[in-house]
Write a structure and sequence with these properties.
The complex is a heterodimer. Chain A is α+β, with helices and mostly antiparallel strands. The relative contact order of chain A is 0.10. Chain B has helices at 134-139, 158-168, 189-202, 225-238, 251-264, 278-286, 315-323, 332-336, 353-356, 366-390, 397-414, 424-435, 448-454; strands at residues 5-6, 9-13, 16-20, 30-34, 40-49, 52-57, 70-73, 79-82, 89-92, 108-111, 122-123, 128-130, 142-143, 150-152, 170-171, 178-187, 208-214, 243-249, 291-292, 298-306, 326-329, 349-350. Classes of the chains: A alpha+beta, B alpha/beta. The structure holds adenosine-5'-triphosphate and magnesium ion.
Chain lengths: 579, 455
Amino acid sequence: MAKEGKIVKVSGPLVEALGMQEAKMYDVVKVGEQRLIGEIIRLSGERAYIQVYEETEGLGPGDPVFLTGEPLVVELGPGLLDSIYDGIQRPLGRIREEIGDYIGRGLTIHALPRKKKWNFKPLVKKGELVKEGDILGKVEETPLIEHRVLVPPGINGKVESIKGGSFTIEEEIAKIEKRPIRMLSRWPVRNPRPFKERLAPVVPLVTGQRIIDSLFPVAKGGTACIPGPFGSGKTVVLHEIAKWANSQIIVYTGCGERGNEMADVLLEFPKLKDPKSGRPLTERTILIANTSNMPVAAREASIYTGITIGEYYRDMGYDVALMADSTSRWAEALREISGRMEEMPGEEGYPAYLGTRVASFYERAGRVINLGSKGVEGSLSVIGAVSPPGGDLTDPVVQQTLRVAKVFWGLDDRLAYQRHFPAINWLSSYSLHLRNIEQYLKREINEEFPKLREMAIEILQREAEVLEIVRLVGMETISKEDQLLLEVARSLREDFLHQNAFDEKDAYTTLPKQYQMLRFILLSHDLFRGLLNKGIELKRILTLPIREKIARIKYVPEENLREFDQLEEELRREVKGLK
Amino acid sequence: MIRKEYRSVAEVNGPLMFIEGTSGIKYGELAEIVLPTGKTRRAKVLEVEEDKVLLQLFEGTSGINLYQARVKFEGRGLEFGVSLDLLGRIFDGLGRPLDKGPQIIAEKKVDINGSPINPTARDYPSEFIQTGISAIDGLNSLVRGQKLPIFSGSGLPHNRLTAQIARQSKVLGKEERFGIVFAAMGITFEEADYFISDFKRTGAIERSVLFINLSNDPAIERIATPRMALTVAEYLAFEKDMHILVILTDITHYAEALREISAARNEVPGRRGYPSYLYTDLATIFERAGRIKGKKGSITQMPILSMPEDDKTHPIPDLTGYITEGQIILSRSLHHRGIYPPVDILPSLSRLRDKGIGKEKTREDHPDLASQLFAAYAKGKEAKELAVVLGEASLSDLDRLYLKFSEGFERRFISQLEDEGRDIAETLDIGWSLLKSLPKTELKRIREEYLEKYL
Ligand SMILES: Nc1ncnc2c1ncn2[C@@H]1O[C@H](COP(=O)(O)OP(=O)(O)OP(=O)(O)O)[C@@H](O)[C@H]1O
Ligand SMILES: [Mg+2]
């Protein structure tokens, strides 16, 4: 039986080998004497096409290829949180400890530490009947997150033994129907993890970013994309969401982007505290970093590594949010490999299967009931940055993404040039989750929140129309109502939508405060309009002292939202005073 | 080790060469082609298939005869010998001395491709570099370890600006070992000479290493030039504790050389004929900037690229912008109006600015002030556009104030002399004095306390 093939061709990250009759599609192979990790991506006769996840310099015809017979998997178990991995789940922190500051080749370091002992607390008893997906017991993975050890998919039956205590992830903690259960499990990254039922998302993923939460919200278990030209603010938005989103687990995938951005997360997150527990945010975060200068094939794998880990925590009943920055770099990796295999190129050289790959990635998001018997609910939200050439939205990756992502935050370079951040264009962006979360907002925040949103959007749309007219014929012909509207719209933009991620006080706003801010600006519009109707001069209205306070409502402290009541009183008093 | 030698060149095509009947050749390996004259050329293995090898020549293929050329394989990649003796020396694009200096005794030989820095080993760049140029220091501040390119166009003064930055840059309150690694790719003799003379005039040449590939040198050689330069930079920064400024000029010529190879290989072209791996290729150059934890030195990169037709969406500036940490864009219209340096403020950006400025770094009011200046200048430019269409009379009072602000801003803030180094306090104070012309209620981006203190 041939367990070993021979290289016949090397071209960049693509290696072709003969003598591979035993190989299966998507099997992992070890390439060359250094045993570089590769994956079979096409078979033709006894020839296998292999994408190699490490730099291929020094490989040549005649070098061996070893079959493993296994697909590309991730290791799952306690120890994932607070880690940083490369695209195929090699632990970058421990790699550095072993070989230094630069990334080498042919390393085999386990993703999860083998020696560390975890304190396992059983939650079922010997003799109980359990089903795949049921929770067997728990481990405190970090002070912030309890790791729930599940009955692996495909295993059902009686618990023959189970013990609490201190174990490594490879030690047996239970036996079900003669099958030993350990904390460590594996899952092939290209297969979605199974669940019982999929539910419509109904709860917002609160990000603390006003334009997102109030105008274009994404629901837990939903999908969002954020395309934009370079420097328009994709990464900052994703970082802000990773910091502030109210999901319990964050998987941040840096896919073909900058090394310094990963360093930023690594240095910044430990300093940020979870508002509820005061624990560092790293304790809920997993980073996948395959930067632009790291091997391109591992970039292709990185988003699957990330999303499989996300699904694993979802199955435990957590709300997970995954960010991928940038899916364009992933698509380009796909294109590069496809080009080297001389596949028929589609649009812009991307392979014809780009659309299905994009769709099947986003389809792994969702709010689901897990396989177990207890109806445990979890969610996985997916947010992808897209980096189209020249910011052009007709780019195939953008177009394929728009077909599947339910929320679109379109970044606008003109806004970025004015340093209006987040530079999300309020006219072109949309959210298909508005209906889903309407009930939640009405119930939890305020009955009129959804209506305020509609009003705000209307004002912003009207502003664009009026400005168009101003550009053609100047300000004089504009009615007083519209002039007032322009001022209110400006206030919406500058005092509400504009949000500085680098300002401690401004970086995060709760939903109740967002509601208050929006309400206050719109209320002032109503009252000022009343004054106009009474024939009061616009100039006098616009110079009311309260207007300066409106400009600073961002800085009303979260702990003292009562201040809005006082502001409202002041507003009404001044309005009355003008009569 | 017996080096393998072949006489079986089957085809030469542009910068590429095919050899048959080979065995044991590895991908990426270096080859040496020996011509009948005894002269040698260097080449790299681009692809190996069974007993065939595809080579890319660094020095071009002109004059090569299929039946006379001998090809020797070296069993290793292209390397460059590093040593402190490199300082003060000038090399060609492939690392051969161009000056008459003594032979260099290498401390060691290093593969010019380098290896990716482990992201966990990176230290975040946060030390403000004062370039003395207001448009940069005030609004698009450069920090140590950043990669900040200059996007320019033909005829714009990017060389003068870069030379000025190289002359004036310093880190406040520190006396450290500072050096320049300069890589010229496809620029003219005159341009290269401008830098060399300037480095000589200021004495910077003593702490510089220069690699010069001129426009009439083989284009393909350029593929190796930035990698040679960065190999030296890494050695000086991370082994010899120096703070290195790497100037790479012109990235556009580099990318064109890459396109030439891709076309010769008949690869499926990406946008405008550039190979679809241009992003990844450029990233392996630009990502070699940075800081490493526990190391004293740093690599700051300032690549210069000329935008074909001043078009920022052209693949070269576009992909560069996607990799670098911001960009300084030069504007033809400011240049025509005699403003030096003609930095186009609004589309320029330094992504690492916010980590390098503010309290205890530059001055507490710096971030707010910068944000306000951007916003106000953007409004002023909008007002200007409106005035062009409808006449100044149609502007509101406020718009007119903004218009005036932006004119003053260009004249007093952006514009400065070529030998004028402003310290950061001076830059910020000019900013404040300009803001005085706007109503206080407009200054929403600035905290009350700073308004009171500085306005
Ligand atoms: N919310 C924000 N608040 C303040 N500044 C911001 C904000 N968003 C973006 N910026 C500014 O814009 C810069 C660019 O943002 P970012 O790095 O997120 O762009 P990007 O779209 O990810 O670009 P690329 O595609 O090149 O990675 C930031 O460095 C920061 O200066
Ligand atoms: Mg980004």
